[in-house]
From TrEMBL:
Superkingdom, taxonomy of origin: Eukaryota
Organism listed in the record: Achlya hypogyna (Oomycete)
Record's keyword annotation contains Metal-binding: yes
EC number per UniProt: 3.4.19.12
Primary enzyme class: hydrolase
Record-annotated USP domain positions: 106-400
Protein name as it appears in the record: ubiquitinyl hydrolase 1
DUSP domain location: 552-661
Segments forming domain RanBP2-type: 1000-1029
Record-level GO cellular component terms: cytosol; nucleus
GO terms classed as biological process: protein deubiquitination; proteolysis
A GO term for molecular function: cysteine-type deubiquitinase activity
Catalytic activity entry: Thiol-dependent hydrolysis of ester, thioester, amide, peptide and isopeptide bonds formed by the C-terminal Gly of ubiquitin (a 76-residue protein attached to proteins as an intracellular targeting signal)
Length: 1029
């Protein structure tokens, strides 16, 4: 291919001066641009063919314009690709692959991250009783249903109708998701979604015309259980009943689901420190605790939740349990009561925060098992649903004695599905007709191209008397079949290609037009805007001008190439200092101009911007001399190259290499500054050496000078220092280049009325019930009087700081220091506080939002601390080193993010989620598993009622409260799922699950939290929201 290299070199180089339009350039052949044997890293086309781009400055090169590569030449031609996928591929097939009446179940489209929705909807759809209830639901005539609820139920009915009758292989759940306002881009927990969905549907079913629907969700999915505690001494029992929509079973330590289920119901022995307080014996006794399921209230559909996601306290992250567990086809609840497996919801993935949900479900209509993976539905064997599994997350069992479900007489929205099916088949016919027509046009175009371009030479010869100049853009348009794809006429503006005399300009003709023989032009039939005749294209006047410009351009390029060569060569003779950054920018721009490199556009723009500045401007100091320590930022060039730069660019200052030295004044100033800095550091070190008090204050990171805030000495005064001032002082001592702080002052603690306002963080420290955390809003620091006196001696300011003195557990005074007496005692004056500003700040602090309150988990029968004196030492973080000897486990402590207006009941639910993270590995799972309504919350030794708000109870940020389970609740090692609505994932925060209206007389639904309340309740038992009238 040596000939090809020579030819491309002549085309890509300087155009011949005797051939301004390039008509004499040799024509390329097809094999020059499409070679199966051409080595090297060239672009590849279909079937491994290597291709070269079109020779852009050769008007006789007619290849490399997209043939065999782009447009109609693609594996899927662009016109056919524009039609979209074949709609017939979406038609449901039967379980054996053919189209008949025994169709495969319908899949569901994934809307982004909604596989958890799709999987559970498939499970519910295959529950014939649930499906029938959904189809039969109609709003009653006596009660007006909220439009939002009506829309949600209609969306579910419409979705079920499409899943049952649609001819498409998958249905679109977009409408259903929209009515629920789900976040389609966020993966959610399928178990949580199921509980929220069923609870929400219950609030809709109560509006049904059919009274049997009012409690359908509860009757079909909810069971009853009892927590029984038996004293082993007197055999007296304490019982507490509850309900469940699913049972959460442990995976670790269990080989099969049946084993885990049996363990869930097995008795737990309470002994040693865990002994039970028996009211009959009036003391702690050994006892057993056990869950019993009410056999008479076992639901037709039993849901088991396998606890695959746990919190690792070492990494404080949620992790997935990868242990396998055996799944059997039947579950024995008790003798004579068995369930059969009907669905398995799987979670694929190794982490708890990502992965994919699928469902393996038994289809009662086809008597077969299917795996649902969004739009993909595949028949599987029954053995695929059972056996050992590392992915099973939820199991759905159906009672073996459940009655058969009668078919539905009339299914809503069936007529819409039928109309959609007819439209689908019409779309198939239209798509097939368009595909056939386009395929015929594409084949015709390909045959025409092969005849015109590959069988014979398409370019006009140099001696041809007549030919046409055709636009390169039109050639690409025709060769790639763009007109077939768009059916739009080709339009091009030739005004830019024409010179002032109305002819083709030489520079534009070579790069934007091709010479075609009349034979090819007749077939292509280009529009008038894309063709110029050989008889009228040449402009003699413009050719002479073009030749002169081309000659000057080549001289300029040659000069640039010469300068680049000088830059690479070592300077000879006299040399000059030049900014390395500037000269590298010039090099990049020059290489781009001479086509030696194709730099990144961003870097090219930065280099061009640098060339606009004066040479060496970045090297000079304020005295106009070379800055010290800049040797790595400049290089030297020879006198010839420097003269070229000085002639064509601005120069800040010429710096001869041998005569240029660093600025002596800058060196002296730097030396003086360094010496001053060293002296300041030495002075600081001397201060810290002479003053252990300040050295300790400088290193201290706590908010106060006490190792343990519960050991604040009484009747000892401490000074208040502005947090901003103390922070600046520490920064100044860290870096002596930072200015010293101003004199000390009490102005930061004064209000606009000239009185004083106490910093809230100081009040928290002085009355703290636990170690307060550092918060951005902290206003002051507490220091000892010695620390304050030494800082005042260094920086001046008032000698009468604000002081605080703790006189008792709840007695704290705030005063202004007047003087220190010779015997060491102090004379203080009680502060005149501004009642108005204090009240405003207290209200602002009490009306907190998104702040943390600390929770300490108490064991059963453990005494509740009263105030701060009864503080549990084990629960308090301490800076002292703990012993490694084994002993009683400390109380778990964690923070709960809450608002001041949260009720105690709502706070318990928030604490339940946080307790899961704190308790998963700390032996306090009872706080995660017991319903919050069976736990007590204490603050300062007083039990708080569920209806009280945190603000009303006097709880402020960083306060400590105590959570303790009731003594008659079960706290076994098995997790017990709470009733619907007890937990909420943040992903469902703005969904419809948080705004359900009340239901009729059987139950009513809280409009704030959707909790199902008893008819006689006047306020929500969870969030205290009043019952709507």
């Amino acid at each position: 291919m040596a000939k090809l290299k020579r030819k491309r070199g002549s085309m890509e180089g300087a155009p011949g001066m005797d051939d301004p339009y390039g008509t004499l350039l040799p024509a390329c052949r097809i094999e020059d641009h499409h070679s199966a044997k051409k080595p090297g890293p060239k672009k590849k086309g279909p079937m491994g063919r290597r291709r070269l781009d079109n020779c852009s400055e050769n008007p006789n090169c007619l290849f490399g314009l997209g043939e065999h590569i782009e447009g109609i030449w693609k594996a899927i031609p662009v016109p056919l690709e524009a039609l979209g996928k074949d709609p017939s591929e979406t038609i449901r097939t039967d379980v054996d692959g053919s189209i008949d009446d025994r169709s495969t179940p319908c899949g569901l489209r994934n809307l982004g991250a909604t596989c958890y929705v799709n999987s559970m909807v498939q499970v519910l759809f295959m529950d014939l009783a649930f499906r029938k209830a959904v189809h039969e639901w109609q709003p009653n005539d006596s009660t007006t249903v909220a439009p939002a609820l009506l829309g949600q139920m209609h969306a579910l009915q419409r979705l079920f109708a499409y899943m049952q009758f649609s001819a498409s292989s998958y249905a679109d759940p977009q409408g259903f998701s929209n009515t629920l306002n789900l976040n389609e881009e966020m993966q959610q927990d399928a178990h949580e979604f199921t509980k929220l969905l069923l609870s929400h549907l219950q609030s809709i079913f109560v509006f049904s015309k059919d009274r049997s629907h009012w409690t359908f969700i509860e009757d079909h999915f909810r069971g009853q259980m009892e927590y029984v505690t038996t004293c082993m001494t007197c055999q007296s029992q304490s019982r507490s009943s509850g309900s469940y929509y699913d049972l959460s079973l442990n995976i670790k330590g269990h080989a099969t689901v049946q084993d885990s289920f049996n363990s869930f119901l097995a008795p737990e022995y309470l002994e040693g420190e865990n002994r039970y307080f028996c009211s009959s014996c009036e003391g702690k006794q050994e006892a057993t605790r056990q869950i019993t399921l009410d056999a008479g209230a076992m639901p037709p559909t039993l849901t088991l939740h396998l606890m695959r996601f746990v919190y690792d306290m070492r990494s404080m992250t949620k992790k997935k349990v990868q242990d396998a567990i055996g799944i059997s086809r039947t579950l024995s609840v008790r003798p004579g009561l068995q369930y059969r497996l009907t669905a398995v919801l799987n979670h694929k993935g190794s982490t708890a925060h990502a992965g994919h949900y699928t469902a393996t479900v038994y289809c009662p209509e086809l008597l077969d098992w299917f795996c649902f993976n969004d739009t993909e539905v595949m028949r599987v064997s029954a053995d695929d649903a059972v056996g050992s599994s590392k992915e099973a997350y939820m199991l759905i069992y159906t009672r073996m004695d459940a009655p058969d479900v009668a078919p539905v007489d009339e299914i809503p929205f069936a007529d819409q599905v039928e109309a959609s099916n007819r439209q689908l088949y019409r779309d198939v016919d239209v798509w097939l007709a368009k595909t056939t027509a386009l395929t015929a046009q594409i084949e015709t175009r390909k045959k025409a191209y092969n005849t015109l371009f590959e069988t014979q030479a398409p370019a006009a010869t140099a001696q041809a008397p007549t030919y046409s100049w055709v636009s390169t853009a039109f050639l690409k348009h025709w060769i790639q079949g763009t007109d077939i794809a768009t059916a739009a006429p080709f339009v091009e503006d030739l005004s830019a290609a024409q010179c002032e005399h109305g002819h083709l300009h030489p520079a534009f003709a070579r790069t934007h037009f091709k010479r075609l023989s009349p034979r090819v032009v007749d077939v292509l039939a280009p529009p008038a805007c894309a063709v110029v005749s050989s008889a009228t294209f040449r402009c003699t006047a413009c050719v002479e001008s073009w030749l002169q410009d081309t000659l000057e351009s080549h001289h300029t390029q040659q000069e640039l190439l010469d300068q680049l060569a000088l830059l690479e060569a070592p300077p000879m003779g006299k040399a000059f200092v030049i900014s390395r950054k500037w000269v590298n920018s010039w090099k990049l721009v020059t290489q781009h101009a001479t086509k030696q490199a194709k730099p990144n556009p961003v870097k090219l723009a930065e280099a061009q911007s640098m060339l606009a500045s004066a040479i060496n401007d970045d090297l000079l100091c304020e005295h106009g001399q070379l800055q010290p320590q800049k040797r790595k930022q400049f290089r030297t060039v020879g006198a010839g190259l420097w003269q070229y730069f000085a002639t064509h660019f601005r120069v800040a200052k010429a710096l001869a290499a041998k005569k240029t030295a660093e600025c002596h004044r800058c060196i002296a100033e730097a030396s003086t500054l360094e010496e001053s800095h060293a002296q300041a550091q030495a002075a600081r070190d001397e201060v810290l050496k002479r003053s252990p008090v300040l050295r300790k204050l400088f290193k201290r990171r706590l908010l106060h000078p006490f190792e343990n805030i519960f050991e604040i000495p009484h009747d000892v005064p401490f000074a208040l220092v502005d947090r901003v001032w103390l922070t600046r002082w520490k920064e100044h001592f860290d870096d002596m280049d930072i200015d010293a702080p101003p004199p000390l002052d009490v102005a930061p603690f004064q209000c606009a009325h000239g009185l004083f306002v106490l910093p809230h963080n100081v009040k928290e420290i002085m009355r703290a019930t636990t170690a307060p955390k550092k918060r951005p809003g902290a206003e002051a620091e507490i220091v000892t009087l010695d620390e304050y006196a030494q800082m005042q001696a260094l920086y001046g300011g008032t000698t009468r700081p604000l002081v605080t003195v703790k006189q008792g557990v709840d007695a704290v005074i705030y005063a202004r220091l007047r003087r220190t007496l010779p015997d060491g005692t102090i004379d203080i004056r009680i502060l005149a506080l501004c009642d108005e500003c204090e009240a405003a700040r207290d209200r602002q602090h009490l009306d907190f939002r998104g702040e943390e309150v600390l929770v300490v988990l108490l064991r059963q029968d453990e005494p509740v601390p009263a105030g701060t004196e009864g503080m549990i030492d084990d629960a308090v973080p301490s800076v002292r080193r703990r012993s490694n000897r084994s002993g009683r486990k400390p109380n778990v402590q964690f923070a709960v993010t809450c608002d001041a207006d949260d009720t105690v009941a709502l706070f318990k639910h928030k604490a339940q989620l946080a307790a899961l993270a704190a308790g998963a590995y700390c032996g306090v799972l009872e706080h995660c598993d017991v319903d919050p309504s069976h736990q007590q919350l204490y603050f300062r030794g007083v039990e708080l009622p569920n209806t009280s708000t945190l603000k009303a109870a006097g709880i402020q940020p960083q306060d400590t409260v105590y959570l303790q389970p009731s003594t008659d609740d079960l706290v076994g090692d098995g997790a017990i799922a709470t009733t619907a609505g007890s937990e909420r994932e943040q992903g469902f925060r703005f969904s419809a699950f948080h705004a359900a209206p009340p239901a009729p007389a059987t139950v009513w639904v809280c409009s704030a939290c959707t909790y199902l309340n008893e008819p006689e309740d006047v306020a929500c038992d969870i969030c205290a929201e009043p019952k709507a009238e």
